[in-house]
UniProtKB/TrEMBL annotation:
GO MF term list: ABC-type nickel transporter activity; ATP binding; ATP hydrolysis activity
SMART domains given in the database record: AAA
Species per Swiss-Prot/TrEMBL record: Labrys okinawensis
Principal subcellular localisation of the protein: membrane
The protein's name: Nickel import system ATP-binding protein NikD
Cellular component per GO, a single term: plasma membrane
Basic and acidic residues composition-biased segments: 260-278
Top EC group: translocase
Assembly and binders: The complex is composed of two ATP-binding proteins (NikD and NikE), two transmembrane proteins (NikB and NikC) and a solute-binding protein (NikA).
Length: 291
């Protein structure tokens, strides 16, 4: 079943100087129950696409084309039907409220129920997030946790309402490499076999390959490649994805084989020079419309 269907979909941001396209001509179907990685370098439009899917585009965004949600009976609500986690682990948590109460309130706001039941569910979710002593953890405040633990708490708060989709926008990029892989592994365990659809935004191909069934690659606001991860990573058609995979090969340490744990993320995609490509890559930048 298709959850989202995009046809010729575009988003531009309006400001005093005109309209600035962030996404153009996106054709993409997102299947229920799959794990999709939205891959692309900084500024390629990943967060814009994630926000559009969640129905959370800012007021200055103007859309074009079609985005339909055939998999939802009614207009989905962000927070209830679509869970969200963002890059800043602390950003979605209130510093003044005990984490158990925050998760419980997130549940009650979306699904109702008694305070006591919600708190019990909150502790249950903290346990599933592999936080030591979930009962004690539920009584603590966000500042008493590390960045990785805060991100686990944010995940619990997003999942406690039992959304059918989880959109995670670079949920690990503020964390160290070992913690990143641990959180992605946790996400993979939580979502596998659960029926939950995961949309995982990242610029990190190693993280994408750790968890994605499908991959959609954005480059300068265009979807340049999309399909099953296994096929895309084995036989990338687009030179941009090929270049990314090559960077990944070079990052691999021979002693560790496929493991990148502890490896500095020294090379960013931005360092790949598009002029090295043999095939011309469509450039949204050249089509800025200052009308
Ligand atoms: N609220 C906004 N108002 C104006 N322009 C925006 C807004 N949000 C994003 N943009 C612009 O849209 C383009 C795409 O941004 P977006 O945040 O979607 O990219 P991204 O792939 O998520 O990048 P990053 O990896 O840095 O998060 C960029 O040029 C960005 O400056
Ligand atoms: Ni982003």
């Amino acid at each position: 079943m298709k959850l989202f269907s995009l046809r010729g979909f575009g988003v531009s941001y309006r400001d005093r100087t005109g309209m600035h396209p962030a996404l153009q001509g996106i054709d993409l179907d997102i299947e229920a129950g799959r794990h999709l990685a939205l891959l692309g370098e900084s500024g390629s439009g990943k967060s814009t696409l994630a926000a559009a899917l969640a129905g959370l585009l800012p007021a200055n965004a103007v859309t074009a084309g079609r985005l339909s949600r055939p998999g939802f009976a009614a207009q989905p609500r962000a927070g209830r039907d679509i869970g969200m986690v963002f890059q800043d682990p602390g950003g979605s948590l209130d510093p003044l409220i005990r984490v158990g109460d925050q998760i419980a309130e997130a549940r009650r706001a979306c699904r109702g129920g008694s305070r006591a039941d919600a708190l019990a569910l909150a502790r249950d979710w903290l346990g599933r997030m592999a936080l030591p002593d979930p009962h004690a953890a539920s009584r603590k405040y966000p500042h008493q946790f590390s960045g990785g633990q805060k991100q686990r708490i944010a995940l619990a708060a997003a999942l406690v309402s039992e959304p059918s989709v989880l959109i995670a926008d670079e949920p690990t990029s503020a964390l160290d490499s070992i913690t990143q892989h641990a959180i992605v592994e946790l996400l993979r365990t939580l979502t596998t076999g659960s029926g939950l659809t995961l949309i995982f935004v990242t610029h990190d191909i190693a993280l994408a390959s750790q968890l994605a069934d499908d991959v959609a690659v954005l480059y300068q606001g265009r979807l340049v490649e999309a399909g099953p991860a296994e096929r895309l990573f084995r036989a990338p058609a687009h030179p941009y994805l090929r270049a990314l995979l090559q960077t990944r090969q070079e990052l691999k340490s021979p002693e560790l084989g496929n493991e990148e744990l502890g490896h500095p993320r020294s090379r960013r995609f931005a360092e790949i020079d598009p002029r090295d490509f043999s095939v011309k890559v469509p450039s949204a930048a050249q089509e800025h419309d200052h009308g």
